[in-house]
Specification:
Layout: E1 3-5, H1 16-24, E2 29-31, E3 34-38, E4 41-42, E5 48-54, E6 64-71, E7 78-83, E8 91-97, E9 103-111, E10 116-125
Parallel strand pairs: 2-10, 4-10
Antiparallel strand pairs: 1-7, 3-5, 5-8, 6-7, 6-9, 9-10
Length: about 140
């Protein structure tokens, strides 16, 4: 079973490191085991497809509990959360997000043993979304 939680943007001013620390409870995060697939060069930031997957056997004893996607420059740093369980079969999800400008995206996986794993991608956006015009 996969549960997706997408939160609306707010005026939260916390930085990326703080948002990640809050989600992990201050636990250390190790690079690896997570695949964050998103184009590194995006022509239009309005609807950018991304996929995330985690290397896990997805057994009762060893599985992914949740994956959160964080971004560096959007008003809400924590843009998507995916919840998994051992009956999910595999820890993978796809969605689309808006990117206001070029920035780093970070995916953090929380495992059933309490460990946290990550992947980071730097995305260059040539036509930004979420930009107000002067009309």
């Amino acid at each position: 079973m996969l549960v997706v939680a997408v939160r609306p943007a707010s005026a939260a001013a916390e930085d990326l490191a703080t948002a990640i620390r809050n989600w992990t409870g201050g636990a250390s995060v190790t690079p690896g085991r997570v695949r964050l697939d998103i184009a590194r060069l995006v022509d239009n930031g309005n609807a950018v497809p991304l996929s995330v997957g985690v290397d896990s056997p997805m057994t009762a004893a060893d599985h992914v509990v949740a994956v959160a996607i964080f971004n560096e420059k959007n008003p809400e740093r924590d843009v998507a959360r995916f919840h998994f369980g051992p009956r999910s079969g595999r820890a993978a999800a796809s969605t689309r997000i808006r990117l206001a400008t070029s920035q780093n995206l970070v995916a953090i996986a929380r495992m059933s043993d309490g460990s946290h794993w990550s992947a980071t991608v730097d995305v260059l956006v040539t036509l930004a979304a979420c930009v107000e015009g002067d009309s």
